[in-house]
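Predict structure. Chain length: 480.
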Amino acid sequence: MKYQVVIGLEVHTQLTTNTKIFCGCSTKFGSEPNSQTCPVCLGFPGALPVLNRQVVEYAIRAGLATNCSITQRNVFARKNYFYPDLPKGYQISQFDLPICQHGHLDIEVEGETKRIGITRIHMEEDAGKLVHADISEVGDDSCVDLNRACTPLLEIVSEPDMRSPDEAIAYLKKLHQIVMYLGICDGNLEEGSFRCDANVSLMPVGSTVFGTRAELKNINSFKFIKQAIEYEIERQAEILDDGGKVIQETRLFDPNTGTTRSMRGKEEAHDYRYFPDPDLVPVLIADQWIEDVRAELPELPEAKRARYVTELGLPEYDAEVLASSRELAQYYEETVALFPQAKIVSNWVMGEVARALNDDNNRSITDCPVTPALLADLLKLMEKGTISGKIAKTVFDEMYKTGKAPERIVEEKGLVQVSDTGAIEAMVDEVLNNNPGQVEQYRGGKETVFGFFVGQVMRASKGKANPAVVNELLLKKLKA
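Prediction complete.
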């Protein structure tokens, strides 16, 4: 390319508080329109906001987890603009004194690590939502649902450090993982809990002067964010190639066409006429509060992956998969605590457990009918030789369907592994007698036939024969 891409991201993270940021209304998603409102979030004259303390604590968590410094004197500001779903005519946000500043995240793209700066994280309220409906009686309508108005948000603003769509997606996915680990956001992209504005510009390769940027507004899918950035790169490159100038503006992405279109001219800070909100006093954060929050931070994904590799001896791939979500990691660790063989547990969680959940409409690990205790009991039966590995998978499927304990299933279905040498020897003799041609091949040097004999014996025993005993007896008789 003749141009270097410059990308900065503004991520709006909806917090998982039970009530809104400045009133006691519920933040529950999916309720009847305008049923979770009050004079404060409806912007009635004279209604006074009261700050939700948990929002501040969640913001501190986010700042510490992203290597930010915490601003100990916070001021809320009014950001003035008119929009149909903004009932007050202004949004309560933060401007010159955001709660978190100067952080960073390290991302990996194509095997290389890159540090992405975080300019600021600030607290603010969300606007409402416009619902565009086709109502046959009155024609096309746009309705306003203010349930979301005053819902607490953290806006996480990166430095313009990303130079490709892949870097942008890597940063977003890591940030998404962190806020979910922290428990401050449910990460639901479809419901808009985690959405992104992307600032995209181009500059000639070798230049240090950024080009004019376009802002891509409110995209709530990793796939669509990448498509939007890729389209915008092509659009701006064509303009510059033709000798034109890119206009600073806000654009919307249309997932149906894969294109962006102009929404409005991009505002600057002075257009919003920021000033301190007179109804909210400054928030002073004591050192002790910051340290208390720091002490309660969970182990984050990066540290967890490293521990799985160094302490548990897992391959990096296993560690990456198991640490991908806090719930999956907790399930794995609880199982290992009961059956301390890390790699065996890893194989089962990434194998049979993941397969069953995927087949069950991508069921959440938190709803898995096979609890860590039940899985550990199954693995103990296999370790003791009560059942074979093959039978264990059959038992697992039954456990998943019924929730029964593995011991009960093994007993009810008569699945105890046969380890009696005499019984297995009789089956081995029968298999060898029935397959003289394969015996001759093996003794003639074709040792790959051995697997055939093992399979025949296991079939004869209906999978119950102890594989170790089967292998030992087969080798002894074939080499006699």
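Summary: Residues 3-288 form one domain.
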